[in-house]
Amino acid sequence: MTLLTLDTHVDIGWPNPPDPRTETKQQVDFPKMARGGMRAVVFIAYVPQGRRDAAGHEAAAARAEAMLHHIRERADGRAFRFCATPGELEACHAAGALGVLSAVENGYAMGRDLGAPTRWRALGACYLTLTHDGHNELADSARPRPALGDGPEEHGGLSAFGRQAVAALNAAGMLVDVSHVSKRGMLQAAALSRSPIVATHTACRALCDHPRGVDDEQLDALKAVGGLAQITAVGAFLRRVPDGQKNPASVEDMADHVDHAVRRIGIEHVGVSSDFDGGGGVIGWPDAAETPGLTAALRARGYGERELGLLWSGNFLRLWRRAQALAAG
Ligand SMILES: [Zn+2]
User: Fold this and answer.
1) Per-residue pLDDT tens for 289-300?
2) Cα separation, 206 vs 268, whole angstroms
3) How far is the CA of 24 from the centre of ligand 1 (A)?
4) CA of 81 to the centre of ligand 1 (A)
5) Residue 275 CA, ligand 1 centroid: distance in Å
6) Which domains does the chain have, with CATH numbers?
7) Cα 133 to middle of ligand 1, angstroms
8) 95 CA to middle of ligand 1, Å?
9) Entry pTM
């Protein structure tokens, strides 16, 4: 069986998303996936941070739901299959089809509605990223937005509502994504969630001290709860360069971050993702068509087929399966 390469964080254009069945200007569409051997992607219903009032929350919820419907409907059920469970993804891969998954980015889309995770899960979504840039009702962000009135911290990590939201995600069988969440909020979510948490698009602060990364204490917390850090292809998270200079980050930098995380917490807790069409893309892995570039860089570091399988999808599937089992049980 070919390697199940699963990219766990890919944005779509919204509104007016390009048709992924055709060759587009996007970094990810089905033709590029087919050329690059990218077997499956999680397309994101990303909701930008807006006003935290009833109207703002209502619009955010409507957008997330419309995007989840859109992502699901673009898969044709034959060559491109929407996969709502780990089993469906594995069957899709075995059949040689490309897998389409969905998730929601920014708990802002929940507003204060604890019923949202169940509805999103019914549409097939596999995770919720608790925050984006800017604090919301659930948690503090790693990157506050002073222009939206944010101070450095608002809740001291998770809010009381955020704690209920984590429980609602657990009950619905959706994974808790702590990318974008403040360190304190991330550590609280790790301790609180019954299902292991994931950072779907992050990097190691030990190698590049960017607020969107996770430091060694956070890596240790992920290991302790059986969680997962997905090293992502965003240059600014991988390598520091002086302001105004082009970031020369490459697949070698990604491999450095993977190596650091693996040495610290073990291969079972590390993965990779792109953040394509949302700011991702590095030298050697500029789009889905060039996916072999990253795999080759990892292989050159000594990762064999088993390890590559874990990094590309095995670990994420383990967490997703666990989330489903806990929700069912
Ligand atoms: Zn993001």
Assistant:
1) 999 999 999 999
2) 19
3) 22
4) 24
5) 7
6) 6-328 (3.20.20.140)
7) 8
8) 31
9) 0.97
